[in-house]
Amino acid sequence: MRLDKFISNCTGLTRSQATKVIRQGRVLVNGELCKQGAQQLAAADRVALDDNELSLPGPRYLVLHKPAGYVCSSDDPEHPTVMMLLDEPALEKLNPVGRLDLDTTGLLLITDDGQWLHRITSPKHHVAKTYRVWLADPISADAAVQFAEGVLLRGEKDPTLPAELEVIAEREALLTIHEGRYHQVKRMFASLGNKVVRLHREKIGDFQLPEDLATGEYRLLTEAEKDQVQIKGK
Ligand code: URA
C-alpha cells in the first residue's frame, strides 16, 4: 500500500491531508524521514506520524440509538442521515446493518465488516429482530396466532415466516420477526387492518438496546455484545 493511503486509512485524514503531513516532514518510515507519499510500504514497515506509531484500524462494530427523522443511508437529499450522528474516521467505510424507516427509533448496528453485516441481515440466517409497536386500534384477539402462522403481505406471494407477538397493552405489543422485508412490521399489522403509529426496535438476536444509550448516541459494541447479536432466538 502507498504511504499516503496507509496514513489516510489509519487516521481518517483525506489523501490530500495525508500528503500534506508527509510533505511537512512529520512522517517517519522505520525511523527515517520520508517525504514521498507514493512510497510503497511492506507489511513489516513501521510508520509514525508526529512520533506516534500508526496501525490500521480493525473492523468496527457500533450500536446507535436511532432517533426519528434520520435516514439509514450514507447520503440523502432531504433528511439527515444516521451517519451524521457518528464522529468516526473513515466514515465512508461504515454501513448501517439493515434499514429502519425514517420514523422508526431504536437499535441500529453500524459496521465496516461486510461479512458480519451479511450474517445479521441475510434472510438465510433468520436473526431475530424485536420491535415495540404502538397501534392505532386495539390488537385483535387472533393477531398472535395469525403472525405465528404467517400472513400474506400486500403485493407478495409468500407468507411471512412465523413471528412472535407479545401483547403488552390494548394498543402496544412486542413483535419478533426473523426476516427483514420492506416495511415489514407496518405491513404485517396492515394485513390485519391495523396501523402502526410508532415503532421502536429493542433487540437484535439476544442483544438489547442498552438502557443508558440516549437517543442519538452511539458506542462500540463489546465482544460479548457482538456475540449476542448473532444468537438466532426462537
Ligand atoms: N418494519 C417496519 O415496518 N419498519 C421498520 O423501520 C422496521 C421494520
Structure description:
- The protein has about 230 residues and is of the alpha+beta class.
- The protein has two domains: about 50 residues, RNA-binding S4 domain (Structural Genomics Hypothetical 15.5 Kd Protein In mrcA-pckA Intergenic Region, Chain A, Roll); about 170 residues, Pseudouridine synthase (2-Layer Sandwich), CATH 3.30.2350.
- About 20% of the residues lie in helices and about 25% in strands.
- It contains six helices and 13 strands.
- The strands form two sheets. Strands 5, 6, 7, 8, 9, 10, 11, 12 and 13 form a nine-stranded mixed sheet that branches.
- It is elongated.
- The structure holds uracil (URA).
- Uracil binds next to α5.
Topology:
Elements: H1 3-11, H2 15-23, E1 27-29, E2 32-33, E3 47-49, E4 52-53, E5 61-66, E6 95-96, E7 105-111, H3 114-121, E8 129-135, H4 143-149, E9 164-169, E10 172-177, H5 184-191, E11 196-204, E12 207-208, E13 218-220, H6 223-229
Parallel strand pairs: 7-11
Antiparallel strand pairs: 1-2, 1-3, 3-4, 5-7, 5-13, 6-7, 8-10, 8-11, 9-10, 11-12
The structure holds uracil.
Domain RNA-binding S4: 1-63
Organism: Alkalimonas amylolytica
EC number: 5.4.99.-
The helix/strand class is alpha+beta
Strand content: 15-25%
- Amino-to-carboxy terminus distance: 45 Å
Catalogue the ligands: uracil
* Number of beta-strand segments: 13
What is the CATH homology-level superfamily of the largest domain?
A: Pseudouridine synthase
Uncertain stretches = none
How would you sum up the global shape?
A: elongated
